[in-house]
Amino acid sequence: PGGAAPEGEPEPPAVARVGAWEDAATAYRALVAAYNAGERETYLGSYADSLECFYGAPDVTRDTIAQRRWRDDRGVLAVGRLLPLSVTAAEVVFVDRGFWLRQAGGRQVLHEKLVKMRPQGGAWRVVGETGRAHADCIAGPTMLAPEPELAACPTSPCYSSDDLSRPVSLSDRAPLPLF
Fold first, then answer.
1. Which of 34, 69, 107, 171 is the least crowded, having the fewest Cβ atoms under 10 Å away?
2. Residue 45 has pLDDT above 60, yes or no
3. What is the DSSP annotation of 53-121?
């Protein structure tokens, strides 16, 4: 995958990075699809056995992810845009800007999270996930974040995951800080 070099030759760094990004992004989109389809084992298998960081907490187990994320009223996720911040053949860090629709309330919530993935056991797995408040647990201070490009919510008002009490307009969102 990702334009591999002929057998026995190392991949050029740029080719390895492009392949890593494509593979990690594909695996992440499959994680979201599994969540939405109710495929619990596939979804949870997309996470490492233990995450380095999960919203500020270190060493969070896959079982903890299951307890926090897998409920009957879990809603639906949508990936709006994945923005790579750091890509190597061994690790990919990106921002997921998308939406979460709470089925019960019908309220669409903007989410913006930082995700770190690594290849483990033959698949790319999430090893870290966090929001702005705990970005330092995944990314260093030299990692630049791209300017936000948020799409308007098509069917209902958007709500920021930072403040669920008020709708968000594109003009009142501040750019992401340096991670």
1. 171
2. yes
3. EETTEEEEEHHHHHHHH--TT--EEEEEEEEEEEE-SS-EEEEEEEEEEETTTTEEEEEEEEEEEEEET
